[in-house]
Amino acid sequence: MTKYEWRKAEKARYFPKQPELTTIPASKYIYLEGAGDPNKPNFSADISALYPVAYALRMAFKRGEITGEPFEYTVYPLAGLWTTSDGSRGDKLNKDALVYRIMLRQPAAVTPELFAKYQQQALAKKKNPRIGDVQFAEVPAQTVAQAVHVGPFATEGETFAKLETLIKDADLQRGQFGGYQHQEIYISDFRKTAPDKLKTLLRLKTK
User: Using one digit for the tens of pLDDT, what is the confidence trace for 107-126?
Assistant: First the structure.
């Protein structure tokens, strides 16, 4: 059985070599919504509620329970949609006003019914009540401006400025991800990687 690895199989989607406009295909996600400073414990607790569901589904695929044939894959990277409740941005960002939706992409074969089944398995095993708040969504195809930012989160504004210019030069406008201002996909594990070496895929929706 060959293991499917998104880093190798989906380089064009996750590793653009320069800022670009692209269309992201329709995808399925599990997600959890929350608010507040991501440097505080609640954000870490929300992340820890997502992964048990993702791993329960992954093991079901590996055992052949979902497609009838064993399928092994690397869990997709954590992603986050972000906005603020008070409109603060940039240098005046109020981190306590941040509102987020953290997400993990799922294989195309996952259905709402399968998600619910393995969510309950994860909840029974981990006894984390926030697992019960995890939801499933099918996100339609969307056109975005994206680029990989290398460095700490505090300097992401430099890369977002490049994306804003790209959108303007293409005679497009910024859109929103269902009320959220932008998306971040954490190519690096920010819990284990030095800030100056972090790789984060940044996306702005266009219209």
Answer: 999 999 999 999 999 999 99
